[in-house]
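Morning run. Coffee first, then this:
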Amino acid sequence: MKTVSADQGSFIAYPTNRVVGTIGDDDKAKEVISALLRAGFEREDIDLLHDEKDLNRLDPTGTAHGFLAQFQRTLIRAFDLEEFKHLTHHVADVRAGRFVIMVLAKRRAQRIVAADILHRYGAEFVEFYGRWACEELPATAPRSPEDVPVAFVLAWNDRNPDALALLFDEDAEFVNVTGLCWHDRESIRKAHAYGLERIFKESLLAIDEMKVKRLSPDIAVVQARMTLSGQAPVGTVGQPGPRTTIVSFVVHRIVDRWRCASAYAADVVVNTETNVIDQAGMFSFGYYPRDQAS
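And here it is:
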């Protein structure tokens, strides 16, 4: 493990802009480090803490007391002790012989990738430490194709665009009901962050039915019929009614988890066969009675 750790002699201050997680197994810890390097993280931006020598890196006096006391004083000034409680998890983990991995991730997209890798290999207490607070980064990686729409709905209803984005490949595609296209994980996250804040901030998404078509043992198409209610008022529509949408997820297996490579959403419009644009360029829905069909 020393060959992939950062400099063992450097002191680690409060882990600002770092994703932190605990791995209990030596082999899994090695796999996490390798996966982080493959994902583009620099070797010097990854810290691996495991034994008493590494614990000393948390405090130049040789114990964790000085580091934690300094951190606690900062939190007391902020009138919030919650972050202190979170951080003590990691100190206790090092003392217990587990592996604590810290990854420098200044950009949001990096945080999502780092958290995804940690969760993929069974990490616990995965959190992001900002300048003054920490944020839990929960596991969202589905264990089966059917879990992908379920996790999507949970993230939507929790108003958590980060968790939603973790369901997708870094270069995933998403087409929404109006034909807007997003071509990577970060643009999917940004679009849903905006939508969940402005358009769907009080909405509820529910799965009505789901069908799975396996294309191979590691690839599947999942069609989920969903009902969306509680959309925000817009224009002259003061209380939008419920909408039924079918979302088609193309998913694939990565180790023991499933992730979405592409998603396409389409609204269900009752008694309609196609869309119609009239001579004035106005959009409407079309239905052709059978006795008019050629």
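The two ends are 72 Å apart (CA to CA). Good start to the day.
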